[in-house]
């Protein structure tokens, strides 16, 4: 799994590190980490609903922040959990843009073993960086 | 890098057995010293990032006297949990969502019954199961109050008042709620449509994480202030209900929205430099600062309404299980109190009275007798302070203490974690914990086994140590300790 939860970084919140060979992979990993924080088995979230998600920002870091925040929005507003993403990231008019199709389904307490509700992505120690292997992001989420 | 290696331990100046000061020389930019309220034992348990975060707070514009951390302090984002700071708007003082938390007005409500444990024991499982059925909890739970978005806009301007007008509670509940259940400076035009969409179906839901609803008992040996306990309606072997929840997705979105509003303008427009992006802020007396304060008030109202509707459900369940009206069962509220909020309050600073923006993040208002913030009902006694412990240990009712003015009338809010959630889920197993708690006389219903493991008592500080520290410091005084016998968690 291209993300791992960190046990010694945030006491009250959930911290994870996501990685990817490309930006696209990094964003997918981080998005899956958000779903995994809330539901035990990612595979239990079937691809029944498709949602178009588009965000933009001046920089890559806030692009990821905005993208993850959209997923949290849909969890509350439409009770949707996502387990697969087709996404593209590209610069346009001096901004970074993300266009994505997110696949998932409505959360169902009987079907999904739910864990903890994600309240928000925190900017505390939030970091996206290029590494030798590709890209890495550190994220702390308020739960 | 693990926390323990990343941050340094300050050299404390010991002010008393329960007050430890970090001088302004600890970090460049500190405008005031930081003060930690804790016993030696507690301060040795605190993670080092607490000191980094509270000294970051000490660098913010307009801060008065000290940046405080309460005995249950642990690291968070922006402010530490347990952080208290007051800012003077006339000295460019700021307002910061990171000093309030995403879960605006997260707080506690305590409800009495006239039942004893003997009355309840035979029905305990039924009671807890029914409460679990009727008070939705967990990820993505939705409430039973079906509202249109326009009705919801009204709720977030009117708070608990809306609930009473619509039959979800008793008139007397309002005078037993901070601010009478309504932050009257709320302005829904400062709220994004996203926040409305996230929250409008969540009134009457607990949420998850450390949010819970508990059936608790008053053991005779746990009454510390007999006179006040009696006056407030508490008696030996009584059963009470305590619950902890906040403003759900609505409040969370407000925090996120204004974080994004403040970040790009803070330095460019107001010349404010911060040490952690979660301390994003704006001068209180700026258009953006005022907008957030009014939006935050909507979050405050959502949270009051949420707890009010949950109380309504609790009364229904008790009436159903014990076949008597909630009135006859004596289900009166003691109090509803926030621990994530900013308030505009008058305080004395170096002999001068000032209107300050007091931020409490994981800290509770604790007002000594006479203060106007206290509802008339309790004004001669001091404000009731409700502090919830971990689900295995117990909770407290206290009263505003004689020295509370030292901390801008603030005290602790809970046990305070000592272990990360990720670590706790590796160390404890939900099912096993359930069995152990049952052995100790606590029946728990949880949406998730893993969620239960995260909240294991051993992941928290000892609540008695935390309370003792606030008691010794005189910022809040013990009235009653409660022991859990039934617990619902999301």
Description:
The complex is a heterodimer of chains A (143) and B (490). Chain A is 24% helix and 45% strand. Chain A contains 2 helices and 7 strands. Chain A has helices spanning 23-38, 60-77; strands at residues 3-6, 14-20, 49-57, 80-92, 95-106, 120-130, 135-142. In chain A, the strands form 2 sheets. Chain A has a 4-stranded antiparallel beta sheet, covered by helices on one side. In chain A, a hairpin with a 2-residue loop joins strand 4 and strand 5. The radius of gyration of chain A is 14 Å and the shape is globular. Chain B has 490 residues and is α+β, with helices and mostly antiparallel strands. In chain B, helix 5 (124-134) packs across helix 12 and helix 11 (248-270) runs antiparallel to helix 12 (287-322). The interface between A and B is large, with 39 and 52 residues.
SSE topology sketch:
The complex is a heterodimer of chains A (143) and B (490).
Chain A: E1 3-6, E2 14-20, H1 23-38, E3 49-57, H2 60-77, E4 80-92, E5 95-106, E6 120-130, E7 135-142
Chain B: H1 3-6, E1 13-16, E2 19-22, E3 34-37, H2 40-45, H3 49-57, E4 67-74, E5 81-87, E6 94-95, E7 107-111, H4 117-120, H5 124-134, H6 149-158, H7 160-165, H8 171-174, H9 193-199, E8 212-217, H10 226-231, E9 239-245, H11 248-270, E10 282-283, H12 287-322, E11 333-338, E12 340-349, E13 352-361, E14 364-365, E15 384-387, E16 395-400, E17 410-411, H13 421-427, H14 430-439, E18 443-446, H15 449-454, H16 463-473, E19 476-489
Parallel strand pairs in B: 3-4, 18-19
Antiparallel strand pairs in B: 1-2, 2-3, 4-5, 5-13, 6-10, 7-9, 7-11, 8-9, 8-19, 12-13, 14-17, 15-16, 16-19
């Amino acid at each position: 799994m291209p993300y791992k939860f960190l046990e010694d970084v945030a006491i009250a919140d959930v911290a994870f590190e996501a990685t990817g060979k490309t930006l696209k992979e990094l964003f997918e990993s981080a998005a899956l980490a958000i779903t995994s924080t809330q539901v035990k088995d990612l595979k239990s979230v079937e691809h029944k609903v498709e949602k178009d998600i588009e965000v933009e920002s001046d920089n890559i870091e806030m692009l990821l922040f905005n993208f993850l925040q959209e997923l949290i929005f849909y969890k509350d507003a439409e009770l949707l959990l996502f387990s697969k993403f087709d996404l593209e990231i590209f610069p346009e008019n001096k901004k970074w843009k993300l266009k994505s199709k997110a696949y998932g389904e409505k959360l169902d307490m009987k079907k999904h073993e739910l864990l903890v509700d994600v309240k928000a992505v925190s900017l505390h120690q939030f970091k996206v960086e290029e590494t030798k292997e590709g890209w890495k992001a550190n994220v702390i989420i308020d739960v | 890098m693990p926390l323990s290696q990343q941050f340094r331990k300050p050299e404390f100046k010991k002010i008393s057995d329960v007050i430890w000061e970090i001088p302004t020389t600890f970090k460049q930019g500190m405008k005031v010293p930081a003060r930690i309220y804790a016993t030696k034992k507690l301060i040795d348990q605190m993670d080092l990032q607490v000191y980094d975060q509270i000294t970051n707070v000490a660098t913010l514009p307009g801060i008065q006297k000290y940046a405080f951390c309460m005995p249950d302090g642990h690291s968070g984002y922006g402010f530490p949990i347990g952080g208290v700071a007051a800012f003077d708007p006339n000295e460019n003082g700021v307002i910061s969502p990171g000093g309030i938390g995403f879960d605006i007005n997260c707080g506690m409500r305590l409800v009495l019954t006239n039942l004893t444990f003997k009355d309840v024991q035979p029905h305990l499982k039924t009671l807890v199961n029914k409460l679990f059925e009727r008070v939705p909890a967990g990820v993505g739970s939705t409430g039973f109050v079906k509202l249109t978005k326009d009705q919801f806009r009204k709720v977030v301007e009117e708070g608990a008042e809306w609930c009473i007008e619509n039959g979800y509670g008793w008139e007397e509940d309002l005078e037993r709620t901070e601010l009478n259940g309504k932050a009257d400076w709320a302005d829904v035009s400062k709220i994004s449509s996203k926040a409305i969409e996230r929250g409008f179906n969540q009134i009457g839901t607990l949420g998850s994480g450390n949010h819970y609803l508990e059936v608790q008992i008053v053991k005779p040996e746990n009454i510390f202030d007999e006179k006040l306990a009696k006056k407030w309606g508490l008696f030996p072997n009584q059963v009470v209900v305590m619950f902890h929840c906040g403003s759900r997705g609505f409040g969370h979105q407000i925090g996120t929205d204004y974080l994004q509003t403040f970040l790009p303008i803070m330095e460019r427009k107001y010349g404010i430099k911060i040490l952690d992006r979660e301390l994003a802020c704006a001068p209180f007396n700026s258009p953006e600062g005022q907008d957030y304060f009014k939006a935050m008030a909507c979050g405050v109202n959502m949270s009051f309404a949420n707890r009010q509707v949950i109380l309504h459900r609790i009364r229904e369940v008790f009436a159903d299980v014990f076949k008597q009206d909630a009135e006859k069962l004596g289900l009166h509220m003691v109090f509803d109190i926030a621990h994530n909020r900013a308030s505009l309050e008058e305080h004395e600073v170096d002999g001068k009275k000032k209107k300050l923006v007091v931020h409490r993040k994981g800290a509770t208002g604790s007002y000594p007798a006479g203060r106007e913030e206290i509802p008339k009902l309790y004004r001669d006694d001091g404000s009731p302070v409700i502090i919830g412990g971990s689900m295995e240990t117990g909770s407290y009712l206290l009263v505003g203490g004689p020295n509370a003015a030292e901390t801008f009338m603030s005290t602790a809010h809970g046990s305070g974690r000592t272990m990360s959630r990720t670590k706790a889920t590796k160390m404890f197993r939900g099912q096993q914990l359930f069995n152990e708690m049952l052995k100790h006389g606590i029946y728990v219903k949880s949406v998730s086994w893993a969620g239960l493991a995260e909240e294991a008592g051993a992941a928290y500080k000892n609540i008695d140590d935390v309370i003792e520290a606030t008691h010794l410091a005189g910022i809040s005084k013990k009235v009653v300790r409660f022991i859990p016998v039934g617990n619902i968690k999301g």
